[in-house]
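lol ok so funny story. i was supposed to be doing the assay writeup but got distracted and ended up predicting the structure for this chain instead. priorities right. anyway since i did it might as well share w the group, maybe its usefull for someone
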Amino acid sequence: MGNHVKHVLFHLFSFVLVTGVQVVQGSPHHNHHHHRHHKLGFSKLFVFGDSYADTGNNRKSEASSWHQPYGITFPGKPVGRYSDGRVLTDYLASFVGIKSPVPYRWRNVATKRLRYGVNFAYGGTGVFDTLVPDPNMTTQIDFFQQLIHDGVYNKSNLNSSIALVSLAGNDYTTYMAKNGTAEGLSAFTISIINQLAINLKRIQGQGVKKVAVTAIEPIGCLPQSAASSSYQQCNETNNMAAMFHNLLLQQAVEKLNNETKGSTFMVLDLFNAFMSMFNRQKDHPGIMKFGNLLKPCCVGTSAEYSCGDIDENGVKKYTVCENPESTFFWDDVHPSQEGWHAVYSALQISLDQLYI
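and the output, tada:
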């Protein structure tokens, strides 16, 4: 990671200290695996987001998620998920007790599946425009509105629906890539949260019953950040930026709930779900099924290559670990199926709030 980014985040951290923002680490929740399959009335899931939630919207020609070795654990071949298997969307659908919603791109060929909702998430996208041409969050909600306008869904369908919103990591990557300044970072975070709040309200305005938005993960613990320490430690400055984002998000969600009847909006705390894994491994190195949590299963053979890359002769430019189930991260940004399952287990207590 460049000095520029460190500089940016140092300023942000100073801002957090100066404003007296409380940054609290959550305690790890007990980890019990139970798929509840509540049938308490959610029959549809609508998903807005990026690669943490995308189940196949990205163009096959451009996305690594359609190349080997993505999908090797489930369903056994690449189908557009940024993992060796299932992602957050799939686990949330299973929690609600429905099939994973159909990717928007496949809506015309899988019309039967539309009764479970639609997944509008595209890998690489953000709240604002990012470095990829894929639809940002505003456009994803436009697609949703169009389906309602076309009569695919109506008020009574939507009454039994829940939305998952998983975005913002790519907004920060784009900010850095476009030489965003240290001084501008806190203002940029505020603009993201303000736009997110508008978008969340807009989703709810279509008649969606519950809207779950993810806190941003500890970006300093992603393998791309941890690589510089040979996957030995998280980058704390980056994690501070994530905490600042999450603090403002929590405040925005509380404000939205105060303005609407019932607690429509909730935060899924990915930050602490990820951190509880890392902290547990630190405290009890022997009991975790994961090896080095920060080290991904699939890595490029050199800095210019990443998982799934091949050269002009079709030679693989990546290596894959022997057992993806023993890794928390699949590639340099995305959890493995096993990683997502662990995160999902850590989120169980918050997920129960969906039914309050």
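Strands lie at 44-49, 102-103, 118-119, 161-166, 210-214, 265-268, 298-300, 318-320. The chain is about 35% helix and 10% strand.
back to the writeup now i swear
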